[in-house]
């Protein structure tokens, strides 16, 4: 078996590379040693080129498809031009996963990559709806994933939990099947249920009853919202679905009332700036409303979404955010704290991560931070 992939060291955007080199050494070092938590991370979108090649070993028919896919991503600098084109590329990668053993491999490789970035905990979204669409066994696939995750946690120290995701444009019956599997595996690390895909073709109002059922099962609930459509989608996810976190929430910046709703209810946003640039929703990283969200007092977490498909990583998202928005050590620490507090973790595990983060903040001598010494 080939060795794990190296972390992506540079962005396909040359101007971003120049900004990274301008970060102060102490900030770079702080970001590198920061104990991190990631909440918006798709398993299928984490498959780096070397892992794709590893998947194709012994599968002659796959090698050409993998080489073509990697070549196209390189030529297009990890940009897709539109959200539908990205969804098509995501679907193609998913088709390369032929069975449970492939899902187990990419789980292992992802946890190894997270360990290199000092990610201590991640909630990984599994596109269970896509597995159903491929007519594969969700049960056999998740059993392989869970076993691989347990082995990798013991070896790498990265704890993970799972969010089962339904494809909203496939309709209510499809998403109900996904919910059934999420409930079945709740005792095996599935902490939440959510919907992704095309917001316009799968509005939140269709899924109100399913979200009520998910909560009755004891699952947490999330939703992609305000990614490729307007802020009304975010309001619907909060008010109709009772979403506890919002994936992306990009268009909340267009409506002060929606921003107020998120602030008053303390609904965290899982922002993914590079993702929004790569899918053509933003022209540049610095166009992301992250500073506006912070100024408005929203709970904000930083995430990589589909990192291998966008040429990024969680560590790189921190570096880019620090460079483009001139974030201080304290602000970087606060983003990490928000992620820990927004995680679907028991209180004792949250506190352990907060303590680890507090020690990192103290080592960096961050003045006046909320992560300072405990009373």
Short structural summary:
With 375 residues, the chain is α/β, with parallel strands linked by helices.
Describe this structure in words.
With 375 residues, the chain is of the alpha/beta class. It is 52% helix and 13% strand. The protein has a single domain, classed as TIM Barrel, CATH 3.20.20. The protein is built from 18 helices and eight strands. An eight-stranded parallel sheet has the order 1-2-3-4-5-6-7-8. Strand 3, helix 9 (172-184) and strand 4 (190-196) form a beta-alpha-beta unit. Helix 2 runs antiparallel to helix 16 (314-325). The longest helix is centred in the middle third of the chain and has 19 residues, at 138-156. The radius of gyration is 19 Å and the shape is globular. Mean pLDDT is 89; it is low at 1-21.
What layout of secondary structure does this protein have?
Layout (H helix, E strand, L loop, with lengths): L13 H8 L3 H9 L2 E7 L6 H8 L3 H16 L7 H13 L4 H17 L2 E8 L1 H6 L4 H19 L2 E9 L4 H13 L5 E7 L11 H9 L3 E6 L6 H8 L5 E4 L7 H10 L3 E3 L1 H6 L11 H6 L4 E3 L4 H4 L3 H12 L3 H14 L4 H17 L12
Parallel strand pairs: 1-2, 2-3, 3-4, 4-5, 5-6, 6-7, 7-8
Helix pairs in contact: 2-16, 3-4, 6-8, 17-18
Return the domain count: 1
* CATH homologous superfamily caption: Metal-dependent hydrolases
Question: Which structural class best describes the helix and strand composition?
Answer: alpha/beta
Strand line-up of the largest beta sheet: 1-2-3-4-5-6-7-8
- Helix amount, in percent? 40-55%
Please count the helical segments. 18
């Amino acid at each position: 078996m080939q060795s794990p992939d190296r972390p992506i060291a540079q962005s396909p955007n040359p101007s971003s590379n120049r900004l990274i080199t301008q970060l102060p050494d102490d900030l770079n070092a702080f970001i590198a040693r920061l104990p991190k938590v990631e909440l918006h991370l798709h398993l299928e979108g984490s498959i780096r080129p070397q892992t794709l090649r590893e998947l194709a070993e012994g599968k002659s028919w796959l090698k050409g498809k993998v080489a073509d896919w990697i070549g196209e991503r390189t030529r297009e600098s990890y940009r897709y031009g539109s959200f539908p084109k990205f969804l098509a590329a995501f679907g193609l990668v998913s088709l390369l996963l032929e069975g449970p053993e492939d899902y187990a491999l990419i789980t292992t490789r992802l946890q190894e990559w997270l360990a290199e970035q000092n990610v201590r905990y991640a909630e990984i979204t599994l596109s269970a709806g896509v597995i159903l669409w491929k007519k594969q066994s969700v049960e056999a696939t998740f059993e392989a994933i869970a076993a691989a995750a347990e082995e990798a946690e013991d070896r790498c120290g990265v704890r993970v939990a799972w969010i089962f995701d339904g494809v909203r444009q496939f309709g209510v019956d499809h998403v109900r099947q996904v919910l059934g599997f999420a409930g079945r595996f709740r005792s095996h690390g599935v902490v939440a249920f959510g919907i992704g895909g095309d917001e316009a073709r799968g509005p939140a109002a269709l899924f109100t009853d399913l979200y009520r059922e998910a909560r009755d099962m004891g699952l947490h609930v999330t939703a992609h919202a305000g990614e490729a459509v307007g802020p009304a989608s975010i309001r619907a996810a909060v008010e109709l679905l009772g979403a506890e976190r919002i994936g992306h929430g990009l268009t909340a910046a267009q409506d002060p009332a929606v921003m107020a709703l998120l602030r008053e209810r303390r609904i965290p946003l899982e922002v993914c700036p590079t993702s929004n640039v790569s899918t053509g929703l933003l022209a540049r990283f610095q166009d992301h409303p992250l500073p506006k969200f912070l100024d408005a007092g929203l709970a904000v977490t930083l995430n990589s979404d589909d990192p291998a498909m966008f040429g990024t990583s969680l560590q790189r998202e921190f570096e880019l955010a620090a460079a483009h928005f001139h974030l201080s050590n304290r602000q970087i620490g606060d983003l990490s704290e928000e992620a820990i507090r927004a995680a679907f973790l028991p209180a004792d595990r949250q506190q352990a991560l907060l303590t680890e983060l507090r020690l990192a903040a103290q080592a960096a001598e961050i003045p006046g931070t909320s992560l300072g010494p405990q009373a």
